[in-house]
């Protein structure tokens, strides 16, 4: 990796391609978050429950992301592991107003982290404590407590409170993700 | 929710690895205050947004404040109910709209329908026919032709003879006091008498499609031993079936317009099977005990009995299997996992376990902090496999079945007794024992002889002492056929004054004893008795007579002596029986 590459990256001439997996339970707001990260003219108006998965692209200041937007429905969750190899980063979305299924999210996160394709790779994980605008939502600190995020020692992680409909909190998360990916690269 | 999470952590540690590997603890809240039973719990998508809600007909903490509670996620909403609920079900009334199911709560003689959680319709059971004789009598009272007393007499006559039972009003009249009768008749005579029945159980039956979103009919079981099938829209009675006893649990399979089978567990300890077009039960299963739950699993009817066992029956009433439970069954319900096609029966037991059985095989045991009184499995919130339990203390426990969990046979642990053979507790013998046996082998003859001689002497001495005791009537129990008596004396107290109680009992079967006297013999220097000689009342056989006197210790030196008690017959000088009382040391002022 030369100085030239980084310079061109900074200038936005040639953006690096990064594959990101977007995971989370159904109805947590994965597709809405991805949609909001796309440029405003490319955003779709209606979001429907994802069937299987879809591939989306968006750009940050210096990286170009290819996102596997997976369906979070129970019957599609076994598809997730087929894409673990390609993922260079993970976005894990949590519905912070759904305290009932927090244990399910924790369980899915644990299976994800213990999967052989993920376990020994130091890939960054970005958590979105989504739906912060809802009245019965819990704080991102509480979410990280409930999911026992402090137990993740060998991977860089970050949790952001977000409201995917307004787009609040998304930029902060993506900036962190970009920094982490570049730190890994160099 | 803070308390919840800490509780969850505690629960995890105590759980066996088996249980924790299959279930996730979503909620464990001991303070929810839901007091209900399995028939009063239902899960449905009430708002049509894919979020399933739990509908509970709650009895209230003391069974006196009935409430309709709806749980969405972890948020509980409630509204008061007019009477205690007997059952709660959710069903689809019509198929044309974006469907939101209606909630039906059966309580008393009515079924209250709620749509979008708003009262929508009230169905009342048709009144039962009234006894014409009773009607006549009340009509006479209305025209003031008979007075309340004759009215009462006539009603009592009807109650004893007639086959149709009396109405509530007449029964109430028979209860009131003489003074209130006049007022009661004046108040009630203008009202027409009615006979109402009460719903005991309720379930749903698909009308003509077996789909999830098909229209269902309500099936009601009433206290008047009838089953009614209601039309989902018009709430007219589509079918009426009669049973020999009061139904308490109902299970239905099939569709109303095609073919259906109804199983009704009744209070007389029988389960009756009904088919389409049969007005009376076709088959009957007689259980040896009262049924506590009824669940239909695939084609097998599982009945829980109050003798702590589950029985499996076919639709024709043939017994397939029996499983014994370790404790009493408090609640039963069906566990249906659509994704794996699993149907099993859950049983909440009194020993704080929930056991899951598929036929005879134990699949899983869940340990709960409190005994579970109602349970329900299905889609709740957005999660397909949620198990909702309420405990005896009103707590709420929710568990989510893991996506990866598979129930296999052998989920239950093996019998602990089989794995651990019991060691016999045989005592060990030491050197001393071996030496002793050697000695016995050498000098066996001498030992035998000496022992026999000693035994002769022992018998002689025992007989001598016995004769002596008989002669002086020393024994406190007289066994002679004429005077069966028993005496024992008790001394109470510390001080210079003691309370001496004699317990005298006639031990004959049916012969009272008359004319007995009690006499105390004592050292007059040491003790003072107010009366040392008194008569005994007539002794009724079997009763224990406590006769008490006060003994005062006179000695100031702390000397104790024996007091003798003699029970004599009047006119005879030989005592019948006697007792010796060792008086305790006086600890009173006199002694000090």
UniProtKB/TrEMBL annotation, chain A:
Binding positions for GTP per the UniProt entry: 24-31, 72, 130-133
Instruction: State the annotated membrane topology for this chain.
Output: Peripheral membrane protein
| SUPFAM superfamilies, per the entry | P-loop containing nucleoside triphosphate hydrolases
List, alphabetically, the Gene3D superfamilies matched. Answer: P-loop containing nucleotide triphosphate hydrolases
**InterPro entries, per the entry:** Arl6, P-loop_NTPase, Small_GTP-bd, Small_GTPase_ARF, Small_GTPase_ARF/SAR
Location in or out of the cell: Cell projection, Cilium membrane; Cytoplasm, Cytoskeleton, Cilium axoneme; Cytoplasm, Cytoskeleton, Cilium basal body
From which domain of life does this come?
Answer: Eukaryota
Q: Give any single GO term for biological process.
A: cell projection organization
**Annotated GO CC locations:** axoneme; ciliary membrane
Q: What is the protein name given in its UniProt record?
A: ADP-ribosylation factor-like protein 6
What gene is behind this protein?
ARL6
